[in-house]
């Protein structure tokens, strides 16, 4: 069976993707920082009948990244790496003139540096797969200028560029940066706690990612709303 690593998988989009892939028979290695919640998620995802391994830890920790890849290897290899773990840098978000530089460093470390480091660790297994794929979860804020989203958006823009270059350098892989669009997640609630407008559930966005896996278009940046509408 195909094997995927999903970071930030205990809830939100990461959990929705885990459930969608498990329903299709994928074996999974799931990462998140909160061990209790991650183990609960893994236990529930196992109900689909696939092998699910919960590996709690912080993606900025090199030993943890190595453990994620080693766990995938023990399951038989690695076909898909989903870099979904994200840090806002500061909660709630603030304007750039108030942004703590330590918060910006944290966002860059989690969203960019750790994501690349995990790709580097996983590349031998991904290259050995007949359908090796990397998905980096992007954001509208990577491409649009939204007040208070500067630090987080800058980190996602950097991640987008790394994904684009990786797609050029690794011709045998598919590398997709995917903007999921608005979603009702804890991350968004922490970013803008006063915004209570209704937003789509992460599970409603997961089919966009499945479409990419089914159709395997060229490496590049894709928006989930367009994919859900049948466009690219």
Task: Describe, in short, the structure shown.
The protein has 232 residues and is α/β, with parallel strands linked by helices. The chain is built from 8 helices and 7 strands. The chain is globular, with a radius of gyration of 16 Å.
Question: Which key phrases capture this entry?
Answer:
single chain; 232 residues; 7 strands; seven-stranded parallel sheet; alpha/beta
Write down the secondary-structure element order: EHEHEHEHEHEHHEH
Q: Averaged pLDDT, please?
A: 97
Question: Cα distance, first to last residue?
Answer: 28 Å
Strand content: 5-15%
Overall morphology: globular
The unreliable regions are none
Calculate Rg over CA atoms: 16 Å
Helical content band: 40-55%
Describe the structure.
With 232 residues, this protein is α/β, with parallel strands linked by helices. The protein has helices at residues 12-23, 35-45, 62-75, 101-128, 150-169, 186-191, 206-215, 224-228; strands spanning 3-6, 27-32, 52-56, 80-83, 133-137, 174-179, 220-223. The protein is built from 8 helices and 7 strands. It starts with a strand and ends with a helix.
């Amino acid at each position: 069976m195909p094997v995927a690593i999903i970071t930030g998988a205990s809830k939100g989009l990461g959990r929705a993707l885990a459930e969608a892939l498990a329903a299709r028979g994928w074996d999974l290695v799931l990462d998140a920082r909160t061990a209790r919640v991650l183990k609960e998620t893994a236990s529930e995802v196992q109900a689909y009948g696939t092998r699910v391994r919960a590996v709690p830890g912080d993606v900025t920790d090199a030993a943890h990244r190595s453990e994620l890849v080693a766990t995938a290897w023990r399951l038989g290899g690695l076909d898909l790496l989903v870099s979904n773990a994200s840090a806002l840098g500061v909660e709630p978000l603030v304007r750039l003139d108030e942004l703590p530089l330590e918060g910006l460093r944290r966002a860059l470390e989690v969203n960019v540096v750790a994501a690349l480091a995990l790709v580097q660790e996983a590349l031998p297994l991904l290259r050995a797969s007949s359908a090796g794929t990397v998905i980096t979860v992007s954001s509208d804020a990577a491409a649009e200028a939204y007040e208070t989203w500067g630090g987080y958006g800058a980190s996602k823009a950097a991640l987008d560029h790394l994904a684009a270059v990786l797609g050029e350098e690794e011709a045998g892989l598919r590398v997709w940066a995917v903007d999921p669009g608005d979603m009702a997640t804890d991350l968004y609630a922490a970013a803008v706690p006063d915004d209570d407008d209704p937003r789509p559930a992460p599970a409603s966005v997961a089919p966009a990612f499945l479409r990419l896996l089914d159709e395997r278009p060229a490496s590049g940046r894709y928006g989930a709303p367009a994919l859900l509408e049948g466009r690219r």
